[in-house]
């Protein structure tokens, strides 16, 4: 993709400067791209955030040969309006509303040059936010359920992260097949939403053992497990499969813990993952699959996007948009996923204005808080006192008083700061307790593995 040379036109772009926390992604003004041959330039209105981008920011993402080397751009999917046509493009016109993907991961920008085979016309009535949300999540779910899963009438399916982007898409796609029974895990406060989306049996994985819960309702297990978690959940999912059942591994969310990389979580996920023995798979009559859209590319993705857009036109699927954020608020947007708050897709938009910064309440000086009446009273009292003292007070004394008062104020200020420090100091204690709790958990993981 060539950047324009003789133009002052800029494109606000999100750039990952180094692996780490939220501060590693910044909005940078880059030169606006020119569409190359076979490309269109799209004025971006909305972009999708995927779990993979949290992992990329933390340096936890692996995509085969496509290693990520900051400084670099991010973003797979977006939607907007065609601004310019590259040489040889005849299938679109300037002004067309389109959804698009870039496998070079540089969609989080105001103007994106995209290969025309990854561009699709937006269906009538679709919003830019929906268009940005329907690609990665729905294609992933579509391939897993219909290519690997061979989803059929009456199948039982376990969907983890059922309230997230892929989870919502997978649930809706399951609903396009008659009598499919869906078990969905999600945080408890999202259960009404996932039920409304089509999950039959919501399970709160934080307080319940989902294996037990599934077996209570379906003692024989399920036909398909979609596993985006990995670690100990790989073995749990496999244990739930019926004969001819399939587990499809497609993520490792268990490696994520908050906004920065946790080596402990990574090690725990890696060492508690199930290692499959081909001989056991034969006798178990089960199938194990792995899916990575980023390593697929090309025609297979294009076909799936077309199939999903047809389902949208038929009213069978509809992306659920959780929230829309400005580029400048990328950390808040990513925080929705990291803090497990989102229901559906989180969107960022170069067109949206950032939220005003939340001002910290300033400590109010007592004298400033005086009302007009209080001020008047104080002035009158001062006047009386001055008259009584016969104008005899030396200037020095006044300065001394002021200084003493200043010292007192400073002391008070320090005391307050000290209190603040104490409060902050309590956090590590809390974190240490959580870490301790986690250290105790592998015992469970180890047990799960040996089962
Ligand atoms: N292989 C592929 O091609 C491919 C493509 C797309 C996505 N994926 C994978 O699919 C999964 C879902 O992706 P998504 O983009 O749709 O994200 P998402 O589901 O919207 O992710 C956020 C939600 O995940 C749940 N969650 C579970 N474990 C978590 C953890 N450790 N940290 C934070 N949240 C956690 C939380 O909801 P609850 O607490 O309610 O569960 C949270 O709200 C990810 O594992 C991703 O890597 C893979």
Query: Could you say what the CATH architecture of one domain is?
Result: 3-Layer(aba) Sandwich
**β-strand number:** 18
Structural class: alpha/beta
Helix share of residues? 25-40%
* CATH superfamily grouping of one domain: NAD(P)-binding Rossmann-like Domain
Oligomer: single chain
Mean pLDDT: 83
Tertiary shape: globular
- Report Rg: 29 Å
Bound molecules: NADP nicotinamide-adenine-dinucleotide phosphate
- CATH class categorisation of one domain: Alpha Beta
Q: Low-confidence runs (pLDDT<50, min 5 residues)?
A: 1-6, 384-451
Query: Percent of residues in beta strands?
Result: 15-25%
- At CATH level 3, the topology of one domain is Rossmann fold
User: Major sheet, described briefly?
Assistant: 7 strands, mixed
| Number of discrete helical segments | 14
Alpha carbon gap, first and last residue: 51 Å
Family: Belongs to the zinc-containing alcohol dehydrogenase family. Quinone oxidoreductase subfamily.
Pfam families: ADH_N, ADH_zinc_N_2
GO molecular function, one term: zinc ion binding
Protein name: Enoyl reductase (ER) domain-containing protein
